[in-house]
Amino acid sequence: MTHLESSQFGDIVFDPDQxxxxxxxxxxxxxxxxxxxxxxxxxxxxxLQSVDQPSVCFPVMPIASLVPAYQMDLTAEDRECLLxxxxxxxxxLTLAILxxxxxxxxxxxxxxxVVIHTRTRRGVQSVRGDLLYSPEYSLAGPRQHDVERPxxx
Length: 153
Known about the structure:
This protein has helices at residues 63-66, 76-82, and strands at 2-6, 10-14, 20-21, 34-39, 46-50, 57-62, 92-99, 107-117, 122-125, 137-138. The protein is mainly beta. The strands form 2 sheets. Strands 3, 4, 5, 6, 7, 8, 9 and 10 form an 8-stranded antiparallel sheet that branches. A two-stranded antiparallel sheet has the order 1-2.
């Protein structure tokens, strides 16, 4: 087992096989390529915790819980990065990165979802070429009570 001292979650003990590799990093964080997907007890929100830089953590939520009929649009380059053939959609986990401001309403980025191939443990942030979904999908309304603000930045 390996230890990681996260500034948000303290000591995290994990098996290196749990690491998700992002070969291209994430936009604006291209140098960070190894992440853990953490569940936050009692919350629909999870965390994408950087292993490379423990102070970097992104709150995430499954897109299916926000928009059940969400239409994924992976490019050939995204599929290649994930090592995912077109028929592998059942093995793909699609997450929205959340913005949880100190004041104002929380939002989810549906325009550029994080996609994780659960078998290959590879991920990509897939920036859509269309404007079908918003990068600032409001979490206000019926789901507001589910949105607790974890300490991820």
